[in-house]
Amino acid sequence: MSLAVPAPLMRWRLLLGEAADPALGGLQGDALAADAALEWLYGRDPDRVRRGERSAGLGDSQLSTPDWINDVHTLFPQEVIERLERDAVERFGIDEVVTSLEVLERIEPSESLLRAVLHTKHLMKPQVLAAARRLVAEVVRRIMEKLATEVRQAFAGSRDRRRRSLLKIARNFDFRRTLGGNLHRWDPQRRKLFVERPVFLSRTKRHTERWDIILLIDQSGSMVDSVIHSAVMAACLWNLPGMRTRLVAFDTQVVDLTADVSDPVELLMKVQLGGGTDIASAVAYAQGLVANPTRSIIVLVSDFYEGGSDYELVRRVKSLVQAGVKVLGLAALDSNASPNYDRAMAARLVREGMHVAAMTPGELAAWLAEKVRG
Question: Where does the signal peptide begin and end (predicted)?
Answer without folding.
Answer: none
